[in-house]
Amino acid sequence: MDIGSHDPAPDRTVLSLTMGFLASAAIGAVVRLDIADHIAQQPRTAAELADLTGVDATGLQRTLRFLAGSGIFYEDGGGRFHLTAAAERLLTGAPRSLRDAVVFLTEPMFWQAAGNFGASLQRGSSSLDEIFGVPLWEHLAAHPDVAAIFDAGMVSYSAPQDSAIADTFDGSEFRRIIDVGGGRGGLLSLLLSRNPRATGVLYDRAPVLGAHLLDTPELAGRWTIEAGDFFESVPADGDLYVLKHILHDWNDDECIRILRRCREAMSPGSRLLVAESIAPPPNTPHYVWSLDLMMLAALTGRERTRDEFEQLFDAADLTLVWMRTTASYSSMAIMEIAARDRSAASAEAGR
Active site residue: 82, 139, 248, 286, which one? Predict the structure, then answer.
């Protein structure tokens, strides 16, 4: 290794990553100022945008130029800023908008998690429970204003993934779909709309269910909501159970508990659909690694390889039938899981 090399690329890599927190701060600030919405009306200069938002024109220009250097916004020769494909993801209410996801990911609690990353590294899990005095989910339950931002962010974050899952998975054979920890029901809504003969159950915490997305004319009479704790029980009599981005929130023991509750609810012909990002091979640049560090900093979970998921399934008396990768930004995979034949497993163990 020639550590005396004059190639500046390694220097830029190290320093750009080190100052990456500024990118989060910048994008979070411009989203809260609705800059993309103002530019969508017409291209504008930083001074014009500053007049509309009440901030300093020079500071805003510097911020927008920074973001334009990463492909978010484009500055023309007259100093006017335009939307790019990435900037369109910041529009309020637009299809595939990530605006609410950016807001919740740049909330103070995540800055606190990042600031205490060394403590998370020491213990191997989130330090937020020490900061808040309770785990994150209990903190959200006690602070409805923060929980509302979190839930809206998850809808925004999940929408592109929901579409990718529905495009990849043909669930036409299933008649009763139970979405376990399904949030506001974005994925369940898509699965039901594409399978007109199916009914669905949205199962989650009561505060989340109050803002569900299922009450549409198309789905009238085809859904119910049920509040509960998936660590304790899961509704019975489902043909298809769905766990989308649930397991990555939890450690291995917690995942096995969730999977066992699903296994207990499943009939012999039932299937479980698990949708999770699959960790790529080492040394592969991928968004999943950022998500994995978020899990380390803020929760007890992690991203996993296919083999690691199969170990969880095996521990819960389940078996992987097939896995397919979707065309989502996180390369999310969908895995169809079947309940293992207990009598066959017992016979095999007795040999």
Answer: 248
**Topology classification of domain 153-345:** Rossmann fold (3.40.50)
- This prediction's pTM: 0.88
Any idea what the Cα angle at residue 125 is, between residues 254 and 303, rounded to 5°?
65
Distance from C-alpha of 187 to C-alpha of 180, rounded to nearest angstrom: 11
Q: 13-44: per-residue pLDDT in tens? A: 999 999 999 999 999 999 999 999 999 999 99
Which CATH number is 21-94 given? 1.10.10.10
The length of the chain, given as a count of residues: 351
Q: Hey, CA dihedral for 239, 213, 261, 311, is it positive or negative?
A: positive
Residue 248 appears among annotated catalytic residues: yes
Q: Sorting pLDDT into bands at 50, 70 and 90, what band is 270?
A: very high
Give, for 53, the enclosing helix (H) or strand (E).
helix 46-53
Q: Is 66 left (phi over 0), alpha (psi -120 to 50) or beta?
A: alpha
